[in-house]
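Board notes (copied after class):
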Amino acid sequence: MDKTLHIGIPIGVVPSKAVVMGDPDRIDIVLELMDSWSDLGLRRGYRGVVAKIGTNMIGIYSHGIGGPSASIVFEELVKAGVKIIVRLGTCGGLREDIRPGTVIVATASGVRKTGCSTNMYAGDNTPPMAPDPLLASRIYESLKANGVNVLLGPVFTSDAFYAEAPGLARELAGLGYIGVDMETAILYYLSWMRSYRAASVLVVSNNLVANTDEYLSNQDMIDTIRKVFKTIAETLTGEK
């Protein structure tokens, strides 16, 4: 059986719908929601699972940290036959009223002019970095209907977690961004370039502009991650 080069995903036999997460440990958090599942293994730190929830088959994959790592996974999922990719990740909040535990459906993503993985694809051009509008809207409405504290808004994507200058969070907030993560931009850009449908749903782990040290770990977010994943999976049932 042919497999993709880096993450070893079987080509042509995995589900066409995928939920991706940066942290492979988060896959274990959602597996108890599955009716059945089979592990595709762990390769180079990337994990893959094929799961059945209700009548829907979904692939669940980890993509690591940052755009360069994530881009490899997104490219290889498309090579394997995936048509829809939804990121379920975390982000920092960029408005003082956005508390940890809030969920953001990213309506767009911005990046720096230089130093981002999108530049390796787009060069000096400004790439389209937005979700599939219908998919993002349906996920947002489903989350609201299920009682999730959810916001719609643009996020900023950074490739350098520790290199950003002090004060950047407030600068980004002033530009209208409501969250910052490390993968949404490349997910969205590649979706238009490689013709897959995408959305990014982010749980706020901490607030970068409020005067607080509160930070939610995986354990703190278990209930939210499961509820959001279940809602995404239910929404994907009707998507093609």
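Comment from the instructor: The radius of gyration is 17 Å. The chain has a mean pLDDT of 94.
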